[in-house]
TrEMBL record:
Predominant subcellular localization, coarse grouping: nucleus
Taxonomic lineage from the root: Eukaryota, Metazoa, Ecdysozoa, Arthropoda, Hexapoda
Keywords tagged on the record: Nucleus, TPR repeat
Organism: Allacma fusca
GO terms for biological process, alphabetical: regulation of gene expression
Compositionally biased residues, Low complexity: 1-17, 230-258
Name under which the protein is recorded: JmjC domain-containing protein
Amino acid sequence: MDQIATTSSATTATSSSGTPSDKTNKSLTCQELQLLSEMDSRQFGVLKLKESEHSEKKKLVLRAIDHLERLIVEAQDCEQDDDCKTLLIDPKTFCKLGHFHLLLENYSKAHSAYQKFYNLKTDEYWKDPCFLYGSGLVLFHFNALTWSRRVFLELLYLHPSFQCTAQVHIRLGIISKLSGDFHGLVHFRIALQTSSLDISDKNRVLFHIAHLHEVTGKTNAAIHGGSGGSSSSPATTTTATTTTSSTSNNTQQTTNNSEDSSKTLASIKADAYRQIGWLYHSKECLGERTGRESTAIQYLQKSIEAEPTSGQTLYLLGRCYASINKVHDAFLAYRNSVDKSEGNADTWCSIGVLYQQQSQPLDALQAYICAVQLDKYHVAAWTNLGILYESAGQIKDALACYVNAGRGAKQTHDSWLNPNLLTRIRFISNHMAHAPPQQNSTKGRQLPVIEEAWNLPITAEMTARQHNQQRQQQQVKDARLGSIGIHDENYYRVKEESSEDRVVGHKSSITASNRATHLNSSNSNNAKATLMTPSDLESLLKLGKPEIQREYEKSMEISSHLSEKQPIIELSMKMSGHELFEQCKRNVSELNGIGNTSIVGDDLGPPRPPSPPTTRLTKEQLCPPTPSVYLEHKKDAFSPQLQEFCLEHPIAVVRGMASALKLDLGLFSTKTLVEANPEHAVEVRTQLLQPSDENWDLNGKSVWSCVSHRSHTTIAKYAAYQATSFQDSVKEEEEKVSGGHNTNSDSDSKDGFNIRSSNGSKRSKRGPKQIRFGTNVDLSDDKKWRLQLQELTKLPAWARVISAGNMLTHVGHVILGMNTVQLYMKVPGSRTPGHQENNNFCSININIGPGDCEWFAVPDAYWGCVQSLCEKNNIKYLHGSWWPNLQDLYDAGCPAYRFVQRPGDLVWVNSGCVHWVQAIGWCNNIAWNVGPLTARQYQLAIDRYEWNKLEMFKSIVPMVHLTWNLARNVLVSDPKLFELIRSVLMRTLVQSIRMLEFVKCKNVEVRFHGRTKNDPSHYCGQCEVEVFNILFIREQEKRHVVHCVDCARKQSSNLNGFVCLEEYKLQELISVYDNFKLYQPSTTPIQQQLQQSSTPASAPSSAALQAQTQNNNVNNVQAPTFNTNVTAS
Ligand SMILES: [Zn+2]
C-alpha cells in the first residue's frame, strides 16, 4: 500500500537506465525512495512539512509529486496511442499523491487525488486504512462532516488496530460535539484511553470534553425552555475535570483531594485554567503566536496560583516560555516542576531540548539521561539523545540511542515513532559497516559515551530522587493490582532495571550496541545501493517498507498497519470443530484478524444500508393501504394463516385480537396499575404537542429532529397527570361548545391547542404546549405483575413474550423491554419517534385504550432511504431522535403506511420495519419483541449487529451469545437458517481460538470464569461491543471493567494490566459446534411423532423438543408453555 511509483512499466523512475533526456527528473536515491515509501496519511500532524526544519523533506515530496504527476500525464498520452499498451497507472498512485498533498496541507489537491483513487477502486478502497484515514482528514478539513464521519467509522470498523485510531476518535468526538450530540463523549473517552496519545492531544481531548458538556448542557437548557446557558458552566467544568483526574495519571492527587472539598474546587479550577492555557499554546487557530503564548502563560500562572503543587502545570509553563525563547523563565519553570517532586521524563526531555538549543550539549545529555532513566521507553528522549550524539560525531552512541528509541516505540506501541528514525538507523548502520571502527580513546570526543553518561554525578543525584518517587508510585500501583491479583511481569522487570541504576546503564546500552551490531551486519549487503536500477526499484516497491521496519512489525506480532482482516479461506463450515482448531493453530504466526471481526462474512467491506428498490412508485403506491385482518373468533387468532400473514408483510394490524381471545385489558388500565403498584417507576418524556404529521422546532421551523426531555416519576403521579389532562380537555370542549372562547387570562391552563383541530399554521399564541409521555414502564417482575403477565399467555405462541419459537426466549437472560413487557402511558400527542426495533427484531404492540394511537411505518427495504434523509437533516439515524416529514419521504420515493390502532388491536411490526407512533387519545399500550426462528429474521439481526458495530451503537441483543444458545437449544430444519447460524458459530469459534493463542503469546494467563444461569451477556466498557467468551478485565475507577480485545490492545499492546477470563472451555464450544446439525425430521420418527401430537392446530410446523427441555431455565418471567410452536423451516 505504500508503493510510490506505480506503473507497470519499469522504465520510469531512474536515470541509470531510464530517460536521461529528462533533465528535471532528477532521479530519486534509494534513501529518498525509502523515505517516500514510508510517508502517508499517518504522519499528518506529526511530520509538519511547512516547518523550516523539514524543508529538505518538503522539497523531496514536491519532487516526488512532480514525478508521479508526470507519470500520469505520460500514461494518459499513452492511452490515446494505440501502439502503447505497457504504461498503466496503478490506482495507488493517486492514493500516494493524496498522502503527499495531505502532508503538504494542500487539501483540495489531496481531496481530488483521493477521490480519483476512490473512483478507481470503489470495490475495495476500504482495504487501505491509510486511504480511509487521509480522506477522512481531508473531508474533516472541508467540514464535510457527515462524509468524514462515515469514512472514519469505516476505518475504525475495518481496521481496529490502525495506529492513528486515537486521532480518528478525537475527530469523531468533535463531529458529534458540533451537532450537539452527547454521544461524542464515547469517542473522547476511548481516545484518552489510548496509550499512544501524547500529552498535548490529551489536553485537547480534555478541553473538548469540557466543551461538549457545555454544548450539550446548553442544548438541555434550551429544551427546558431556555434557562440560560451560562449558568451551566460551573457544572460543566466539574464534570469535565472529574474525567480529567480519573483518566490521567494523577491518581494520587485525586484521592487526596476527594477528602477536602475546597481543595477539590481549587484543583478543578487549576485543571480548567491549565487546559485553557495549554490550548492557547497548542492551537494555531486561536490567533497569532506571541499573543497566544502570553495568554497561555497567564492562564497557566492562574492555574499555579490555584494549585501551587502541580508539577505538570509548571512543566507546561516551561514549554510555553521555551517556545517564545524566554530561556531563563523556562528553566525556572522546569526546575520548579522537578522540585514539586512530580518531575517526569517529559520534563527532563524538555530541559534537554532547552539545553541543546542553548548549545550546552553536556547539560542536554544529562537531562536526556534523566529522562530515559525515568522512562526506559521514552522515544523522544532517546531520539534527541541520538541527535545530540550524532551532531557531536559520535555515531556509535547515536545509533545505540536511536535503536533504544525504536525499542521504546515498539514497547509503548507508540504511533509517534518518527518515520525518519528507521531510515536513520539504517543509514548509520550502513555507514558504520564501511567506516573504520570508532576509536575507543576519549580523544576528540565532545561527549561522554552513553555508559559513562549514565554514571555522571548530577544524574546519579537526580535518579536517586526520581527512584524515590517511582517507588511511591509503584506502591500505589501495586496496591491496585494487588486487589485484582495481577502479576505484571513486564512492569517488574522494568522496575528492577531502574533500581539497579548504574548497572542498568551498561546493561541497556550494551543491549543497544549488540543490536546495533546485529543491524549492522544484516544490512551491510544493502549498503552499496545508492542509486537504483529499475529492478531495485521494483523490488523496493514490492517490499513497500524497509526491512528493518518489517523486523519491528514481526516482533510486534500484530503490525499496526497491516490490519486487514485475515480472510478465512482455508476454513469451512464443513470442517469439524477439531479441524478448525488445528487449522487455526497452524496459523499462529498470522495473528491478524483477532479483533472484533465481522460475524457476517469476510471481505465484505463496511456494512451499508441497502439501496432502496429501484421501481418508481406511483402516488397511490407511496401511501399503501395497511395490511390488516379482523378477528372474530378465538380460532382465527390461532390459525397458521394469521401468522403467515404477519410474516409476509412489513407491518400488520390485527383488529379485535383482544376480544377474540377474551383478553382482560382492564388489567393494564391506569386504574388497575395504580392499585397494583402505585410507586412503580415511570420514565417521562416531556414533548411538544404537535399534529401527528408535523414536527416543529421551538423557532417554528419544520424539522426532523424531535427533542424531548427525560425525567422520572411514579405510576400514581403519572396517573394523576393523565386524569387532569383529560378533565382539562373536557372542560375546554365544553367551553368551546358554549361559545366561551379560550381566553389567555387563565395563565396556567394546560390546553394550549386542541391537537385534532390544529395545524402548523394555526399555532397557539402562547407557544407550543408541552405534554408528558410516560414510557418504558418495566413490567418484567412477575411477582408485581403476575396477573398481567399471565393474561398475555392467552396469545398465540408467535405473539407471546416467551415461547420456544421465539429467539429472544433463548437469550437466557432478561433484556428489558425486549423479552419482557413494557407499558406506555399516554396523553394525546405522546410520540414515540422513528426507529427500527433493536437488532431488527419484530415487535408486538397492543393498545389498551380507551383512546386510539396513530401509526406511521416504512417497509424495511426502504430503511436506507430514511437513514439518508436523517443524515441530510444532520441527525444520526441510530443515536438521534427524529420524526419523519411525510412529504420528504414521498419526494424521495419512499412509501409510508399510516393507520389507526384502536383499543384491543394488535400491531405486528415485522423485522426491520421503520415506524413512529403518536397517541390520538388518552391510552396505555403494552409492547415487547419477538424473534421468529426464520432465516430472514436471523439475517436481519446479524446485519444490524454489524451496522451497529460500525456506528458504535450498542446491540441490545447479544447475537453471538444468542447464536450459541440457539445451537444448544433448537433443532433447525431450514437449511438457510442452519447455514447462517453455523457460519456465525464457525466465525466466533475461530475467533475464540485465535484470541486464546494471542493471549498466550502475550504471556497473559487465561483464567476460567464460567457462566452462571441468567448471567447477562458481556459488553465492552469502552466501545459497547458484545464480548463473547474471552473477557479482558482491567480495573478502572475501582471497578473491574470488561474490555473487548480491540480496546484492550489500544490501551496496552501487550495486555499489561489486563486479566483474561474465559467463559467456556474451548472443548465445550467445539462440541456444541460439532453437534449442531441440520435437523431432518424424516430421520427421527420419534421426534416427528412428538411434533404431530404436540400442536393444538396452531403452529404451522414443529416444536423443537430440545427447546422444550432447555427452556425452563430461560428466565424467571413466566413458566413457558410449549404445546404450540413456530417453524424453523
Ligand atoms: Zn471495545
